[in-house]
Amino acid sequence: MSSDNGSQATFRVKAGLAEMLKGGVIMDVVTPDEAKIAEDAGACAVMALERVPSDIRRDGGVARMSDPEMIRGIKEAVSIPVMAKARIGHFVEAQLLEALDIDYIDESEVLTPADEANHIDKYPFKIPFVCGATNLGEALRRIGEGAAMIRSKGEAGTGDIVEAVRHLRQIRSEVRALQGMEHDELYAAAKNLQAPLPLVQDVAANGKLPVVMFSAGGVATPADAALMMQLGAEGVFVGSGIFKSADPAKRAAAIVEATTHFADPERVLNASFGLGEAMSSIESRKLDESELLAQRGW
Amino acid sequence: MTQPTGTIGILALQGGFEAHAKLLTGLGANVREVRTAADLAGISGLVLPGGESTTMMLGIERESLAAPLAEFVGSGLPVLATCAGMIILDDAHLNVLNVSCDRNAYGGQVHSFEADITVDGAGDDAFRGVFIRAPRLTRTGADVETLATHDGVPVAVREDRVFAMSFHPELTDDDRIHRIFLEMVPVTNVTDINRKKAA
User: Fold this and answer.
1) B132 contacts in A (CB within 8 Å)?
2) Contact B112, B132 (CB under 8 A)
3) What is the CA radius of gyration of chain B?
4) Separation of alpha carbons A277 and B125, rounded Å
5) Chains A–B, number of C-beta pairs less than 8 Å apart
6) Rounded to an integer, what distance in angstroms lies between the CA atom of residue B145 and that of residue A104?
């Protein structure tokens, strides 16, 4: 084999960054100051966006990729990886984010979808993508399109953990079902999941997704983060939960600590004292069908 | 190869600790995730994985792990540090490895890459180096041996029994570096190390 002196943007390099984020907390931030607070509290990455999901919910209207000026400001403020969101199917927003030299693109249901049939073809991009999923078929379709990281969706901007739990449990139980199948049953399983067969076979053989899976959508307390970790998430995204709370710096550090020590109730308890008010929340079940963000994407 | 006799601790505050655990377990090692100083008790080798060095240093402060980690490195038991793990050991952080690092010097994720490199002591076959937002070694002290270079820059070094590298051997199936690390675990005789260095 001839020596190869360098290839960029291989799938291993893309999925490898997600490996390095494991066990960490990725925090939504809307200003360079918030980004700095997040970094100083121990975030392993920040998600740069214009409005956190709870504000997007309140304000309504079309939610788009953030102002590049704002994203650049956040990038300059911190040394940890910076992620930013593009609308589902809006490959030009993704091209702009790549040109901005950010580290990860979230093709996100929190923004208003730009294409109701197709997600972005993620393979041609040098920047890796993370995508949301509510079940295993959706996760594997995203990976089939080139996503290098998955997050269970939850219901963003609610502060209600119930949907995050539902989605993570759904994905994990579907993975276990595949593990119990005979090899010749996986063809029908792939058909039922509407997912690429080689990925279905990979999950059946390894008992996990072929990429890192975080949990998102509804984490508001250290206990919420530890819950998702104990349920099998490999890290957590926290959106509105930090900067919509009374004491963001303290709550951010507490959620980081609870994510590291998720299996130790004493440590999670210690992290939970004196955090002040959590974000103001909405019960997911009381939302109108049309207000559910998790149903965007397919 | 020699079977390691003890347990390998893997710093698990945040980062790529599971990939190291998988490779080491595959080689027959017992591993333990290290999140507190108490977790360091009785281990006979230590892995400092990649991840975010800022996040990991904050965790090290929160857990008061700086002194116990430095003490472990000073004990002469083997240490394997990859990417952010190497930054943690450098002269600007725990200062237990005589090197300086420029963090993220290769640029953001778009500049992350893979390349074939030759690692001294790991045979003639190229090793696939996976560099992710990698730190660049800008200075290596007199006692630090360079094991591999890429584009003329050191990317893997060794000082006594501390191995440190800019890339991620744990993200490949190639376990040669982890074997070299494990082979050091039962060795307690300094002559042995000098013989290996001379070889």
Assistant:
1) 13, 16-17, 20
2) yes
3) 15
4) 58
5) 130
6) 35
Could you give phi then psi for residue B147, rounded to 5 degrees? -100, -25
CA B185-B189-B192 angle, 5° bins = 90
CA distances from B87 to A13, A44, B73, B177, B195 (A): 20, 15, 14, 19, 29
A21 with B112: Cβ contact below 8 A: no
User: Amino acid letter at A134?
Assistant: T
Mean pLDDT in residue range A255-276: 97
Tokens 């698990």, residue located = B12
Asked whether the ipTM of the predicted complex exceeds the cut of 0.95, the reply is no
Does residue B150 sit in helix, strand or coil? Answer: strand
The token duo for A16 is 């490898």
The structural domains of chain B, ordered by start, are 7-198 (3.40.50.880)
pLDDT on residue B174 = 96
Per-residue model confidence as pLDDT tens digits over B46-70: 999 999 999 999 999 999 999 999 9
Identify the segments of chain B with pLDDT beneath 50: 1-2, 4, 187-199
Contact B54 A102 (CB under 8 A): no
Share of chain A above pLDDT 90, in %: 83
The pair of three-digit structure tokens given for residue B68, joined into one six-digit string: 């116990």
